[in-house]
Design goal:
Radius of gyration: 22 Å
Helix content: over 70%
Number of domains: 2
Shape: globular
Number of strands: 0
Order of helices and strands: HHHHHHHHHHHHHHHHHH
Number of helices: 18
Structural class: mainly alpha
Largest sheet: none
């Protein structure tokens, strides 16, 4: 697991850097736009993210799986070219369909989006080509190049987008920044795989690649839909005269609530490639599933659950740090959406584990079912509860998906239960909960009525939680020096040990 943990640190470091830039970018825009225009930006970003996740779901993961398991051969090169071309056609078709829906009124977004939808389409086409190239980087274990690619895209789109906003181009300027970031990151991705000559050879289309990618599309698209349907549902189902403003306030909450899911996706990028690349005998497959699921559960519990606790127990403080005071009215939506985000983060990790081991159909159907249930929840709840209903749809989708995954994994990961194992499980659970209890208590007790108090509260509690994890690492006796224990703890983000 040393390579997994080392490379997971690369991607996690890149995630924190890109997440910091993305949040700084998104939050700074909230200071330039009124809530209604911020809502227009939120809907445009959700549409872009939804389409980008679709074109980044199936073919890119198929390429990563094949290179990780079989290496670079003539056959895998042909499969790469087939996936690259098919994903390009898919992106072009989706963007054309969205444009037709928009101009015919089937996608009733309003006249504010007439110049935004084409920019979204151009960005998605560029990201579709990059996705397959980045899938090759994952399969080739070039996580340093992949991390650099993610950072490059975020830097370009943030700097250029904010600059164009300052020049008065508004939401359109933000999307031009997305176009530039996607284009330059595509060039970087192609440059990073140039030595493998992936575009050389005969054959550019093999239908087998499309057939094998379909279950991955369904499973990973389900997560994409669940992350973005709430914003679309609120925009389309809320009263017309309130939709943009209501979506703007909700956008502030959901930007923060999605944090655990994006972290889970970063962890899954590494875990998928390494689990797919490890071959085991059939009789060892149950053990492999059990260990991978354990790593996913412990990573969620130790590193993602605390982030969710920050958002759920101190929403006002978190919102005060990042957004203008006018967005304080969205704290309840933040609490509810963060609960759904935590559930979807765990779903993301577990689906990634199953799909990396070739079990693509069951999680695919399950994710699709959860997305359908979320749509039903949106139609029922948004007209009655507004933004709160949109946030509740995230929770509903997460509960449905997680319940199905528990049903799938229970025969594999649950060991025979006896009195001794129950006692060990109880003691281990209580020991793991100690840092979370201190964190939750501090979040509930300490004040955050001003920006400085809120920042001090969150910083001190985050530091306390990290020190408690470090102290536990030292007490285990694995490292004799706290500095070495810190290095070991960082490397174990993915292993869950």
């Amino acid at each position: 697991m040393s390579n997994v943990t080392r490379h997971s640190v690369y991607l996690i470091a890149a995630y924190f850097l890109t997440a910091g830039l993305n949040y700084a970018f998104g939050v700074s825009l909230s200071w330039f736009f009124e809530p209604a225009y911020y809502g227009v930006l939120g809907v445009a970003q959700s549409l872009l993210l939804l389409l980008a996740l679709v074109v980044g779901s199936g073919f890119a993961w198929t390429v990563a799986y094949e290179f990780a398991s079989a290496g670079v051969t003539q056959e895998t090169r042909q499969h790469f070219r087939s996936a690259w071309l098919a994903n390009l056609f898919l992106a072009a078709g989706l963007c054309l369909l969205v444009w037709l829906f928009y101009v015919t009124g089937l996608l009733d977004l309003g006249s504010s989006y007439s110049r935004l939808v084409p920019l979204i389409g151009l960005t998605v086409i560029l990201l579709a080509m990059r996705a397959v190239s980045n899938g090759a980087l994952r399969g080739l274990y070039r996580f340093g190049h992949l991390a650099s690619n993610l950072v490059l895209e975020t830097l370009i789109k943030s700097i250029l987008g904010l600059g164009l906003v300052l020049l008065g181009l508004g939401v359109e300027g933000v999307l031009w920044g997305f176009v530039a970031g996607a284009g330059l990151s595509l060039l970087h991705s192609l440059w990073s795989v140039r030595d493998k000559h992936l575009f050389s050879g005969q054959g550019w289309m093999k239908t087998e690649v499309v057939r094998r990618s379909l279950p991955l599309f369904i499973g990973l698209m389900g997560i994409a839909f669940m992350l973005n349907l709430d914003v679309f549902g609120l925009k389309l189902l809320a009263p017309d005269h309130l939709a943009d403003e209501m979506t703007g306030f909700y956008q502030a909450a959901v930007i923060l609530a999605r944090t655990p899911v994006y972290l889970a996706q970063a962890l899954t990028l590494v875990l998928f490639s390494y689990v797919a690349g490890v071959h085991v005998a059939p009789e060892r497959r149950v053990y492999k599933v059990r260990e991978s699921s354990k790593s996913a559960l412990l990573s969620w519990f130790r590193y993602l659950l605390p982030i969710g606790l920050l958002l759920i127990l101190a929403p006002g403080g978190v919102m005060r740090i990042f957004f203008p005071d006018i967005y304080q009215q969205s704290t309840l939506e933040l609490q509810i959406a963060a609960s759904g985000g935590l559930l979807l983060a765990l779903v993301t990790l577990l689906i990634g584990v199953l799909q990396a081991q070739g079990r693509t159909r069951e999680p695919a159907y399950l994710a699709g079912l959860a997305a359908i249930c979320q749509v039903v929840a949106l139609f029922v709840l948004v007209p009655r509860l507004g933004a709160i209903g949109a946030a509740l749809s995230l929770v509903f989708a997460g509960v449905v998906a997680l319940a199905g995954l528990i049903w799938l994994l229970t025969p594999v990961i649950i060991l025979p239960i006896n009195r001794l194992s129950i006692r060990k499980l109880f003691v281990a659970g209580a020991y793991e909960l100690i840092p979370h209890i201190f964190l939750a208590g501090g979040l509930l007790i300490l004040p955050h009525h001003t920006w400085y108090f809120a920042l001090l509260k969150l910083f001190s509690l985050t530091l306390l939680y990290g020190l408690m994890l470090l102290f536990r690492q030292v007490r285990r006796g694995k490292q004799a020096h706290p500095k070495l224990a810190l290095v070991s703890m960082l490397r174990q983000v993915m292993s869950g040990r």
